[in-house]
Amino acid sequence: MLRPQRNVEFRRLLATAALGLLAVTACTSNSTSTTTSNVIKIGILSDCLGDFGSFYNDDIGGALSVLAAHYGGKASGALPKDGMTGAKIAGKDIQIVGFGCSDSTASKAIEETRRLVEQLGADILIGPLSGDEGIAVANYAKTNQPNKTFINGIAGAQEATLKVQAPNFFRFNPDGAQWSAGLGSYAYNKLGWRTAVTIGDDYAFPYTSLAGFIAEFCAVGGNVTKRVWPPLGTTDYSSFVAQIPTNVDGLFVGVGGAGLITFLKQYQQANGKLNSNKVMGNLFWIDPQLLAAIGTPMVGAVAANMIAADDTSAQTKAYVQELSVYPATQKDAASVFTLGYWNAMTALGMALTSVNGDISGNQKALQAALAKVVIDGPYGKVSLDSNRQAIADNWVTQITPPPAGSNVPGLKTILQIPKVDQTFGGFFDSSSTLDRTNPPCTKKTPPSWVGHEIPVNFG
Length: 459
What we know:
The chain has helices spanning 4-34, 56-70, 106-119, 131-143, 159-162, 176-179, 183-189, 204-219, 238-241, 258-271, 288-294, 314-322, 327-331, 336-354, 364-372, and strands at 39-47, 74-75, 84-85, 88-89, 92-102, 124-126, 149-151, 169-170, 195-200, 223-228, 250-254, 279-281, 302-305, 375-377, 380-384, 390-400, 410-420, 454-455. The protein is an alpha/beta fold.
């Protein structure tokens, strides 16, 4: 027990220490927005669980390959998830503080985002992967972390940028509707569809993806007679296959990830061989992993996304070479998952270089630089609109028979849809609602690219 005099001294010392601690805390609090540290901390968020878990290393590998190719990064192991050290941008050390492991749900994405940003101290977050996750992270960035910077990984729900409009959330990939540009017109004018049914997972990304097809197909005169929505994570699609009418001209499929494999197998069991003139897919159909898993039944079908997989230009070859630090990721170079995270880290590297690595001042200079970045990527330029959303070319692609010695189908790009913006040629704005019943199927003036698609032949 302390004597009275010593107790007084002890209280005086304790009060002095507390005041000092408050001062240090205040400085530390301010340092999050004014630091000129020589270390820039980055977290990367993707899905390692659920329907998109198999793309985990493709996502991370797309981002880390940029650091290895341009900024001196050294892989810590054979797989991207093993980490990377040694990278410097504008003389600042780049520290990867951790990788987030989500499962396509908003709740898990926010849990992992908080861990990376609040516990591990990431200054900048790259990610997430999936639609609902993207909306949640954009809202978190806007409301909880206005002084940090968030760059989308590959999540494609329209709402994340068009509605949330977080000034510190940037998306260098098209949204799901943009990825469907060209398909509605192709179905109507080339395949002769007049009626169609759609099927897609019941969450934000397929709402956006199918909205692009519906808006374009209906604008040129088509009619979508039914929309089928199996829950994300469905493992038995037989009851949903049974809901698909047979008295329509075509089926547009927006089921994604591992679910697409199961759906197509069960669809064939119920209906026989796929008829490529009667079935069309969104971006997932031409992903390398899914092509390898599903194989030849998909031959002849048409899909679209931001990748022209058979392009052999010098820029495309340079991109594929950049991925060589991780051979498994390089094999999936023609995946939007790989390219999306590559775009994100490429844009970040360009912006950090332009501000000399300075993330002080609540990162406002960095964010202003990011808004002006134009990526001269492997499949064309990517710029941002006023909501920090990508404007990019879309590519309509046909699945071709496997080349000699392979059982994996090939891809042939047939149309270029240039500079597709998020309004989809004026169809969508911040008041738009995309859900199980919206947008409505309405005949109106079609997007400007209809009738002006650019034929492609890479040889």
